[in-house]
Amino acid sequence: MARYLDPKCKLCRREGMQLFLKGERCFSDKCAVEKRPYGPGEHGRRRQSKPSEYKLQLREKQKVRSMYGVLERQFRRNFAEATRRRGETGGNLFNILETRLDNVVYRLGLAPSRNAARQLVNHNHVLVDDKRVNIASAPVSVGQRVSIRQRSRNMPVVVESIKSASRRAPLPFAELDAATFSGQLLREPTKGDLPIPIQENLIIELYSKV
Length: 210
What we know:
This protein has nine helices and five strands. The chain is an alpha+beta fold.
């Protein structure tokens, strides 16, 4: 499966904000955005002109793609699915991305980043309602229990992630049971629950031109 292999800190610097792609590093003084608050590359320090409407739309789409670790083809499929569902397209797209299994594992605190969560899922370390699921994009419903299988609970990445999660304020839509290495969505998340603002209307405008 294709995936992004370049340095992830470049993605944060390109968007000018923390996308929390590197786990604990994002909360330390090693964060690239804090150390180098300008774009990557040779011309990163150059004064930027006023962005065009198209650039604002494109950057918003790229920001969301980078956050959730989704490549363009899959993101387009998610958008097409969001338009087919009842309700607002933007809300549907946000729901599809947030209820991906790898994202839920990350939100619960069972993994330090979405990339680490994707690795756990792909390598058969994650259970959904006590059944092994190894598809990172599999949807998770409210009330379904997501857990780390028994033989994988001593993995350092899992142990350290749960320790870190216990030190932070819990998310209002997710509940982690650190003792059993499991958790569940209490309700569907909303945009207001997240630390990074998303302007889904810009993404809809971008794809409406295609």
